[in-house]
Amino acid sequence: MIIRKEHALALLHAKAQEEKGLACQITIKAEEEPYRELELQNLLEQGNSPIEYVLTYWGRNLVYILEEMINKRLIKHPSQWDDRFRWIGSETIAMINAAILSGGLTGEDTFKPLKERGFAQEVHEEKKGWFKKINEYAEAVYNIYKNAKPRLEISKELGNYIASIPTGPAETKLLPEHGRFPLLLESMRLISFSIPNSDVYTLSGLGQAVQKVIQKMAPSMETIINEDYMYALLKVLDSGIETLSPQELEILEELAFINAEGEILPAGEALLEVYKLWSEKGYRPVKTFNLESIDEELLIGIEKVWEKNKTNPEIIPTVEEIIHYLMEKPLKDYKHLIGFYGRMINQAMGYQKKEELKKKWAELFTIEDLFKHFWEKGNQWYERLYDTVKESLYSLEAFELVKSQIEEKTGKTVYKLTDHGKKVLKDIKEKGVREISSTAVKAVSITKTEFGAPNYHWYEEAVKQHLIGGGYPTKSGQLYEELAYTVKRLPHLTRFELMVLHKIPEYGIFLEDLFNEFDETFKEEVQYAVNKLEARYILDILPNNGIRLTEAGKLLKKALSGVPEGIANPINPLIVRILQAIKQVGNLYVKEKRVRILPKNWEEAVKISGLDKDTFEKEIAVARLAGFIGKTSIHESGLEILEAVELLNR
Q1: Residue 526: how many CB atoms within 10 A of its CB?
Q2: Lowest mean pLDDT segment, chosen from 178-192, 275-289, 351-365, 500-514
Q3: Quick one: CA dihedral 369, 375, 381, 384, positive or negative?
Q4: Which of 245, 244, 246, 266 is nearest to 255 (CA)?
Q5: Is the pLDDT of residue 326 over 80?
Q6: What is d(CA 79, CA 82) in angstroms, rounded to the nearest whole number?
Q7: How far apart are alpha carbons 643 and 94 in whole angstroms?
Q8: In 290-412, beta strands by DSSP E
Q9: Of 578, 634, 647, nearest to 608 (Cα)?
Q10: Contact 291/279 with Cβ under 8 angstroms?
Q11: For the chain, is the Cβ count within 10 Å smaller at the N or the C terminus?
Q12: Helix, strand or coil for residue 167?
């Protein structure tokens, strides 16, 4: 959807003619372009002749909104607008949508651009203070956007343009203008621009689907895609080619949507996907992924230990053996981990110790030296190193990159790379160890939505992490986008992440507000915690930096509301496996909202969990401390966690 000066003036002209009982007539070809773009947006439609245009229901509503806003001096008359001022564009819709999801709050980043368009104002609420919120006109425009179904009509020339441009994300300044083609694409919702200033573009989910059709079809006609072609193809799918008229049959064959026998060809299959997105708006939710440097080092370590196992079967990747691998390498080989260890030390000991680490790093030779320096009292260093490795292993298992299981010969718990983990390890070997942030992956995954484009900060992160390059997602970008939607997530929260989650309401808080809930020295730690929570699909960071809990996040927060913040990893994949095992062998009491297990079934629960008995006992002790499990039953909070697991993977 796009309304610039010429579109707004065209709508006002159409209304003025309508009030006279006339259609709006276009006699000069050069004047027709904005009218044609409004027709594609379902705001105008053709009258009794090809040169006549009249307002649609939604176009009329939009003109009423515009006039009322002008009369209230929320916005100037379009005749006074700059020619390139975008009153409504995909970025405007994204800003309004983000505000709606934030309880009407705009946040600092989008308040000014929304106010300039007449869609935001400061509102005073008694006993609460001043808030920056969208107004009724913003919501009315969004309602029009959601209900005014755009047309879809691609000419051969426009098709060539679509085929030639990178899908994005890419900087808008690199997008070839080629006349009004970008405006045509935005009119049909095939392209999206970033908030607040349209610095980044991407073909939308529908736009990418259309591009795939063009790449597979035979574009031999003047019009290569339109609604009539889609409806004709649906007839083939539902009833066969016998139901087609001779003209429909000829067109579908010539454009390579079907063959002579009526079989749907690859281009036709792609066109059916376009129809699905265009008609049903069946877009997937935005999911993302995250890896810290320590996680990647452990993936490398697990593979190295298994390689040693080939020549010495007694060496297996237990936690202890993985630690041994980490201690073999000199600390200078772990420069990329200084940030991780700094955040860990800050959480445990404070900012001064974090700064001390930077100074001491060059003086320490091994990871053992590092941990002994900071945890030498009471000889706690190994225990702390063990907990650090275990926490990362929890995270890897939460993302289905590793799987813990019992090794038959020894009965010990070992770690194996999953197929997903092997793909990630291959990427690490090709591109090196580097952090993969949730915002960088989201810069790729958001492009498959209706009007989403990554804001410039996300885009920059994705480029830096080699997930985007040359106007396309890279091989790495495609991998982590794929993982965001294919891994089976299990809940995991560290002690600090739980503290952060406790501060987040269902909606209506922004990143800056969350940072202010903590001491300023914890800003980096809070950002990393939010990264993890978003990648686990517990919360969503909106393009305006608003934070919103997912349905799974709401349930997990409720289940964890009574958990003391001092517990390390109060929920983790092993506890989830224990809860699932107990539920499988126990009996559900619906009214009491709990599952009871008979004493004789505990051994079966241990077996189903896939954990060794020692690990099972340690993890169930944490689960009891957190209140998920009693002596012989799963409590309501434990059942809520299992329900959240299902929501995480929908």
Answers
A1: 21
A2: 351-365
A3: negative
A4: 266
A5: yes
A6: 8
A7: 31
A8: 402-406
A9: 578
A10: no
A11: C
A12: coil
CA distance 525 to 351: 11
Sign of CA dihedral 347, 352, 355, 360: negative
Alpha helix stretches (DSSP H) within 289-337: 293-311, 319-328
DSSP code string of 572-616? -HHHHHHHHHHHHHSEEETTTTEEE--GGGHHHHHHHHT--HHHH
At residue 30 the predicted structure's pLDDT band, cuts being 50, 70 and 90, is low
Which residue spans within 252-409 are E strands per DSSP?
402-406
Average pLDDT, the chain: 94
Torsion angle of the four alpha carbons 644, 646, 649, 650, in this order, in degrees rounded to the nearest 10: -110
Q: Which residue shows structure tokens 């066969």?
A: 240
Residues 553, 599 contacting (CB under 8 angstroms): no
| Direct distance between the N- and C-terminal alpha carbons of the chain, in angstroms, rounded to an integer | 30
Q: Which helix (H) or strand (E) holds 119?
A: none
Q: Which residue, among 608, 619, 648, has the nearest Cα to 390 in the 3D structure?
A: 619
Judging by beta carbons within 10 Å of its beta carbon (0-12, 13-18, 19+), is residue 137 exposed, middle or buried?
A: buried
Concatenated DSSP letters of 455-482: -HHHHHHHHHTTSEETTEE-HHHHHHHH
**Would you state the structure tokens that stand for residue 27, as one six-digit string?**
């006699």
User: Kind of pairing, strands 633-634 and 587-589?
Assistant: unpaired
* H or E stretch covering 648: helix 636-648
